[in-house]
Design goal:
three-stranded mixed beta sheet; 29 helices; globular; disordered N terminus
Length: 623
């Protein structure tokens, strides 16, 4: 149940069409990228003030209270009885049904809020639903706690019942949390205080970021279009955007430093009470990945900085006729890259064809996101920045949020999020408890979707300079996914470690940021004044501490996975879709075994990184 509360915090949302989802839809936004779709949240609820929402919130209250009355204090004795397996299977099914209902409510509120974070009515609705779910779920806290106190032998005996054995992956995962479980009343306190604690600070961050405006020339822009200007063809616009970002961040540094310090302290308190040894151990546990595997990934990537990012940015500077580039030119379009925007329909066609060539089933699932209005694509004031695919709950379907502006990277981002969406649809059959996938594998489908799309674009591009630009764009994406995310992870580790000795000033956080960024970017990127503030807008630091290594994990894993596909394509798509369909029912090592891959092998990560090196070498050969 706690997973649904955290889903509400991290999840997502929509604009005023969420208020009246059954009313005639607003005209889809138009721009240079063409007609852009807006999602239809009526598949969850008709509107934030719909009677169905009030009905389900009341049902959730009643169901949670009834569950507690039926099962609290009885778990140990009843599971040990002769019919204990069947009895517990019924309890888990009831728990799962409540989880699904809570997921529907949490997702609707979160998606509504992401669509318009500054609308007072939507913000109130989001906060009220969060509080109602937290309050209701207090009645469920006992279940996992009591279940984890049952003796291993008793659980093993109960799992011989087929109905309960179906839930074996969930029960075994749950019992991995056992060493970090606290006394019931402390767990209840942690749970209740989350609404006024880290959830409130998450919300404060979201609302602050969405409300910021950045003066670029005569325009006051929101963060998403300002960040997009860093990829504009005009050097003056890139510089102006970078300086506007730095100026506004600087003016708000005390707020962001307070949020960062408070959340780091909150996490330290929780980790200390639960007995986690390392600052990232709780994330590793949630990801069901061993600390030594992550440490090996981080060490491999950091050792490869000179062969990857340093080497590439040196080459990019040369393309611009310079020895080095200011940081705002890091993602600048290449001088020989094609101009113009990519229309929404062209992006859709490219991705669906790429998916279809790999697997018609995969393309058919992805197409539903377009035909059934599961995507919200336009940039709007107050809309959450970035992109995501939110799984909602198995009884519904995922929704994708984009801020589409027709850039080549936007096409790859759409391919990425649709990869998530396909994964979420396929895994939904596992049910509310076992559909969710650990973050390390959750990024696999998204990055694989990007790779399929990239390979299709590359195959249909005949012009040598455009092929060079496409290859360079892919390398930049890989560096942003692998090098940049591991640098983010190193930054988080440094901040959280130092926070244990007291608060960090915004200046000190900026110093850590510059140190880590300088190491990862290399000498060909000039760290100009103002860049020390750029840590402030990264949402993962706030919503999901230490999440970021999952991107590098997924990218390196997909590089290895795609190499297997290229060597032996027959039967690969079937094995791949079976892996996605497993959801959270199997450990990543089991899921990779059919492909002959082992992430625990010290050489595994170097193999994934060598793919990036190969592309850089190919670019160097082009001149």
């Amino acid at each position: 149940m706690a997973s649904r509360v955290s889903a509400l915090r991290k999840s997502p949302a929509k604009s005023k069409s969420a208020l009246k989802a059954k009313a005639p839809a607003r005209k889809a936004a138009r721009g240079k990228a063409g007609k852009l779709p807006e999602w239809n949240l009526a598949d969850l609820y008709p509107a934030i003030d719909a009677p169905e929402v009030a009905r389900d919130l009341d049902s959730l209250d009643a169901d949670c209270a009834a569950f507690e009355a039926a099962y609290k204090g009885r778990i140990a004795d009843r599971v040990a009885a002769a019919d204990g397996g069947a009895w517990l299977a019924d309890a888990v099914k009831a728990y799962e049904a409540i989880d699904d209902l809570a997921g529907r409510l949490a997702s609707f509120a979160g998606l509504a809020h992401a669509g318009n974070t500054v609308d007072p009515a939507i913000s109130k609705f989001y906060g009220d639903v969060s509080e109602r779910i937290t309050a209701a779920s207090i009645h469920l806290l006992f279940f996992a706690l009591e279940l984890n106190r049952v003796d291993d032998a008793v659980i093993a005996r109960a799992l011989q019942t087929p109905a309960l054995n179906y839930y074996r992956p969930w029960i075994e995962d749950l019992r991995k949390d056992k060493p970090y479980q606290l006394e019931d009343r402390v767990e209840q306190l942690f749970h209740e205080k989350s609404v006024s604690g880290y959830a409130a600070w998450n919300r404060q961050f979201d609302q602050t970021i969405s409300a910021l405006r950045f003066k670029v020339g005569a325009k006051d822009l929101a963060i998403e279009p300002t960040l997009t200007l860093l990829q504009d063809r005009a050097p003056a616009k890139r510089k102006a955007a970078a300086q506007a970002l730095a100026k506004t961040f600087k003016a708000n540094e005390r707020t962001f430093a307070l949020i960062t310090n408070t959340l780091a302290k909150d996490k330290e308190i929780s980790d200390r009470w639960r007995g986690f040894q390392d600052i990232a151990d709780s994330r590793h546990l949630a990801n069901r990945v061993e600390r030594e595997v992550v440490d090996a990934l981080v060490a491999s990537v950091r050792a490869a900085y000179p062969r990857l990012s340093h080497r590439y940015y040196r080459m990019k500077a040369r393309w611009f006729g310079k020895k080095s580039l200011p940081f705002w030119d890091r993602n600048a379009p290449l001088p020989f890259a094609a101009t113009g925007q990519i229309g929404w329909n062209d992006a859709k066609t490219t991705i669906l064809k790429a998916y279809g060539e790999f697997s018609p089933q995969m393309a058919a699932i992805a197409e539903r996101f377009f035909t059934d209005r599961w995507i919200d694509a336009p940039v709007r004031p107050g809309k959450a920045p970035g992109a995501f695919s939110h799984p909602t709950t198995p009884s519904a379907h995922p929704y994708v949020l984009m801020n589409y502006q027709g850039k080549p990277r936007d096409v790859m981002t759409l391919a990425h999020e649709l990869g998530h969406g396909v994964h979420q649809v396929l895994a939904a059959k596992q049910g509310a408890l076992m559909a969710p996938t650990p973050l390390t594998l959750a990024e696999t489908a998204s990055v694989f979707g990007e790779m399929l799309t990239f390979k299709r674009l590359l195959a249909q591009t005949k012009n040598a300079k455009q092929r060079q630009a496409l290859l360079a764009g892919k390398v930049e994406d890989m560096i942003n996914t692998v090098v940049r995310q591991i640098a983010f992870y190193s930054f988080e580790r440094a901040v959280h470690t130092e926070r244990r000795n007291g608060e960090l000033t915004a200046q000190r956080i900026g110093e850590i940021w510059l140190s880590v960024q300088g190491e990862s970017l290399g000498p060909a990127i000039e760290i100009k004044p103002g860049y020390e503030t750029y840590w402030m807008y990264i949402p993962h630091f706030i919503h999901s501490p230490f999440y970021v290594y999952a991107y590098a994990f997924g990218d390196c894993l997909v590089n290895s996975l795609y190499a297997v596909y290229e060597r032996a394509a027959d039967g690969f798509a079937e094995r791949y879709l079976a892996m996605l369909s497993a959801g959270g029912t199997r450990h990543y090592s089991e899921l990779l075994a059919p492909f002959g891959l082992d992430a625990k092998d010290p050489q595994f990560w170097d193999g994934g990184l060598s793919v990036i090196e190969g592309l850089i070498a190919e670019l160097e050969a082009m001149g």
